[in-house]
């Protein structure tokens, strides 16, 4: 029996290959799709990234689109379910103290009720997606007729809730840039999907700020702060850019587009503005936001909002010369160590990926950095370079999407089962900085 | 009395302004230098960065060059001396246990002998620089005559030992790309200057690997690993580039140039190859190396080799499910916290700087990133964009050089005097990654 992380990665690899095989069937596409394109598309769907080398709406048949949507659903909610399953399997291996910590964190009366959590995840997902279909149908059915409109509503609802970023139009949601329903319903779907089930469960149960767990408070504060930061940044930098916000006529439309681009960056992947036209400074800001991503155990990717928050709080704590804490709770050294490991791995992976892609492709460096961050953060936003990559470049992108989706979870599993070293080393000191 | 870190920053600001005033004197330059250029140049010298908006050899008179060299000497060794002075002042404030830790780290029998350390620093600096003058004179005197040759030898010896990167030619050391003495003596000077006085003292005293402190071992292993990595990377990526290594005729010359460019990147700042002609992938690798920099309490900048090493060891430890350690010594949670704070601050500073510069300047993004990393790492390598920056851009670069040089030390002071919080917070847990 291989170790669980290896098993998990293997399962997702298998799912990807099955998806690629299905997408390669003659009746899955209206035109020939190469094996490489099929693997890329299946990986992008299973990892809920949304980067695409084919035009989903035009090149895939209804069958192909259904295959894609199933991959998205399994990849998005399935990985989340797996996370919970992992936690449950791990509940049997850890000592009583850790189990109590775990139980408190999950706000459960017993670690054996984790299967109940899994059922809640499935239930909430289906409920939210169904609500999404109804609301989005209000936009799509009048425009596209009943059958196609309903299919659009279903596809975009599932894709949005799972933070997959796949749409049926080549230009994502640009034509609905000022549509109020699209600007509210789609972000609502991917924010709910991306904030993490534990947070949703905590809010549904407690309903009062004071009672919420530290994790939930950190997620809520972090999400609001990042959203405001991204929205203000996008608005200020792009307000007069004639190719993006400048062409929109009302202040409301500009703010709506800034709001949408801010929330989509962590890690939904839809866009209502042509991202190839944004300024370099805006692209840099979006790269940072894509790498942060959404919440743990959610349909979102990135290093996660809480990882950033703990890094910031550790920095503040260091300057204030005390141990890191938030909302009256201490953040232990093991959690700082985890953040250190996560950010180091993320940085090295991002740099290595960018390095390899820049060897194989001579395009604009910032555009490449944008695509690499989008792949590793499983965001799916694009400035167009992904389509231009050669085989090496696309292979790197496939690996990055896979690592971006499976990596953090695998790391999480390793942490949860850590054992204490029996050898006690004397402490050495090192000069830093 | 202001807090010591504020005082330290104020002292360096004062030194910079005095230097700028001296460089603005009519007999300091052969042509008019603007106030902005004088401030930029003085900052670059005091922070031993080496980025320049004037041609030092052509635009400054001998008086101007002497002013520059004095600023470099105070900035390079002076900050180091200040670091030791800070440690000594702090030895009076910390408890007995911490003092013992400090004493062990400094390999001293008493914390009151720190003034002896300061004297050693000055002595070693002068001895190494004098040796550098003699060796470099062998190259410069035959080429430029006795007086100018000796001045070149003195200027480059001091500039190299202090990792300042300032040369007297507009194209740095490119014309000596294959000269064996330049390829050995100059790197020897900046490696000795940049590895850290504590390391040199430890090696001089112990002379045997087994007896060296953990810090020294980490620095030696890290320096060798980074040098080999940078040299191999530069050679592989640039071997056939007709504008860099490709134009060199022998394998030996190509390897020598690769060696030089590898060691100079952390953070000497001289170059023997035209860096505006290197590939994007090479530039990315060099950006990473510039941000790492050299050793703590040395003339080098960057987040420091040991900071990278601890981050890597913390990551390994996390995966191996044990506490971080190296060479049989444990690395405590407070040191991981410090690394976390340093890297977070470095990342935010680098991103903010790049963001501001990219708003004010529409040049190639990678070139801008290169200059920003060069300023913050106080490296001084340039692909040419620094000269093109407007006032906002140059101001950002000045601030980055200052933060790159003063920041880590200031942080170090804060750490060393940290007090323990008397309130005990219950530990909370947070989902990460
Ligand atoms: K996505
Ligand atoms: K330098």
UniProtKB/TrEMBL annotation, chains A, B:
InterPro entries referenced in this protein's UniProt entry, alphabetically: Cat_transpt, TrkH
Domain of life: Bacteria
Broad class of where this protein is predominantly found: membrane
Pfam family name, one: TrkH
Location of the protein in the cell: Cell membrane
Keyword Transport in annotation: yes
PANTHER family per record: KTR SYSTEM POTASSIUM UPTAKE PROTEIN B, TRK SYSTEM POTASSIUM UPTAKE PROTEIN TRKG-RELATED
Name this polypeptide is given: TrkH family potassium uptake protein
Native source species: Tropicimonas aquimaris
């Amino acid at each position: 029996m291989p170790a669980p992380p290896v098993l998990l990665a293997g399962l997702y690899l298998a799912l990807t290959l099955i998806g690629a095989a299905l997408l390669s069937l003659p009746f899955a596409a209206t035109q020939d799709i190469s094996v490489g394109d099929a693997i890329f598309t299946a990986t992008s769907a299973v990892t809920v990234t949304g980067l695409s080398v084919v035009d989903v709406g035009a090149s895939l048949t209804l069958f192909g689109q259904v295959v894609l949507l199933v991959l998205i659903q399994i990849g998005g909610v399935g990985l989340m379910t797996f996370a919970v399953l992992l936690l449950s399997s791990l509940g049997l291996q850890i000592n009583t103290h850790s189990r109590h910590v775990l139980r408190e964190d999950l706000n459960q009366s017993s670690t054996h009720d984790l299967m109940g959590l899994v059922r809640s995840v499935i239930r909430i997902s289906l409920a939210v997606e169904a609500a999404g279909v109804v609301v989005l149908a209000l936009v799509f059915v009048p425009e596209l007729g009943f059958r196609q409109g309903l299919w659009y509503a279903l596809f975009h609802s599932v894709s949005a809730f799972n933070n997959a970023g796949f749409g049926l139009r080549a230009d994502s949601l640009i034509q609905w840039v000022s549509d109020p329903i699209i600007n509210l319903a789609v972000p609502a779907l991917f924010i709910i999907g991306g904030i993490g089930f534990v947070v949703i469960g905590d809010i549904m149960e407690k309903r009062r700020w004071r009672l919420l767990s530290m994790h939930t408070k950190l997620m809520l504060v972090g999400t609001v702060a990042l959203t405001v930061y991204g929205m203000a940044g996008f608005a200020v930098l792009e307000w007069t850019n004639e190719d993006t916000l400048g062409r929109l006529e009302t202040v409301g439309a500009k703010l709506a587009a800034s709001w949408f681009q801010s929330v989509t960056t962590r890690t939904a992947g839809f866009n209502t503005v042509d991202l190839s036209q944004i300024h370099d400074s805006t692209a840099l800001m979006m790269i940072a936001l894509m790498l942060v991503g959404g919440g743990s155990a959610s349909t979102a990717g990135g290093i996660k909002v809480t990882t950033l928050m703990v890094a910031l709080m550790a920095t503040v704590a260091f300057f204030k010369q005390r141990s890191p804490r938030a909302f009256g709770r201490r953040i232990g050294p093991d959690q700082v160590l985890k953040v250190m490991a996560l950010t180091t791995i993320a940085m090295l992976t991002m740099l290595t990926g960018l390095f390899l892609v820049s060897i194989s492709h001579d395009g604009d460096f910032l555009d490449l950095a944008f695509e690499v961050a989008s792949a590793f953060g499983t965001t799916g936003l694009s400035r167009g370079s992904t389509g231009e990559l050669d085989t090496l470049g696309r292979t790197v992108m496939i690996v990055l999407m896979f690592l971006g989706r499976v990596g953090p979870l695998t790391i999480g599993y390793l942490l949860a089962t850590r054992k204490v070293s029996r050898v006690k080393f004397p402490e050495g000191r090192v000069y830093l900085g």
